[in-house]
Amino acid sequence: MVAVLVPRLRPFTSTIFAEITQLAVEHGALNLGQGFPDTDGPASLLADAQQAIATGANQYPPAPGLPALREAVAAHQRRCHSLSVDPDDVLVTMGATEAIAAAVIALCEPGDEVVVFEPYYDSYPAVVAMAGATRRTVALRAPDFQPDPAELRAAFGPRTKAVLVNTPHNPTGTVFGSDTLRAIGDLAIEHDAVVITDEVYEHMTFDVPHVPMATLPGLADRTLTISSAGKTFSVTGWKIGWVHGPAELVAAVRAVKQFLTFAGGAPFQPAVAKALGEADYPAISAGLRPKRDLMVTGLREVGLRVFEPRGTYFVVADLAPLGVTDAAAYARAMPAKVGVAAVPVSVFCDDPDLAPTLLRFAFCKRDEVLLEALRRLAA
Ligand code: PMP
Ligand code: GLN
Q: Which ligand 2 atom lies nearest to the CA of residue 343?
């Protein structure tokens, strides 16, 4: 029998999102597990992509991305975050996922270390392992999921090559403020590490600003900033993402990306370029806020301890008050037993004691779906 998976990848045989969605489909459960909206993005965006197909945008786009999209990303960074970005330093990727993977693979060699916060987005440990590097985790603990300064410092060392920051943070919904980002940035400078920031939820915050790491003094020249259209425009299946940063770092990411996918998403790129210029960004958070409030209140009424998110479209709740000790087992039984699917937070952690009883619910769903899910949970 051939060993089909190299040893360092064995822990990552399947994603929890695919597993939970599969269970939801099998049992006809309401899927608050995998994070995707149940309504499509703006009609004009969908029409623009259809128009692009009809008018011949069906062959390879330029490998670095369509110039119009790279310009639109730079303009977006200027308009939304007062960041000055040269379109030549923007690389279009197949979702944020490819940008993260290409960045880590470009920067790391076996023996290098990457600092990640746990719970982490599931692709982070997998791509760090693919690069042959080692992850050093910093815990984010309930109730506010902010890093402890001493633990943060201890995670950095002479082999630190990069730190992967995700704010607003999936799965906890926490948002890192300027002080936390400054502390991370200072450690990156001290250890000459690159900051990779995953900002796919940049337009989903409640009462707090999103601070891009690259806006902090002294950090732009060592930061790769990543985002994507999937969350912002409710088109998670389009997989149009981007990364920007200093020219030499982006060149390294481009060198990897060209051998992963080379290029893709030709008809989606002009559509996203146009949407980036036209979008009403505050409306995104404003539309999500009532859903967040509905879920926070509803889950509390069910008897769970709920950690109100400051960003993203996820809410984390603790099942311990209901006597549940293993949320992972509970989440796998829920689609059949309760008719609702959610994701256990423990699968995003190295430390088995960090979040054994926490569940993540996605609230990017129609109100009637959220209400019915809460009704089923209460029953
Ligand atoms: N990072 C985080 C934190 C995410 O939640 C997701 C899921 N959308 C991604 C990256 C992947 O983004 P994309 O679908 O654009 O690859
Ligand atoms: N980002 C989505 C989530 O966190 C899932 C993406 C995926 O299925 N890989 O739920």
A: 10
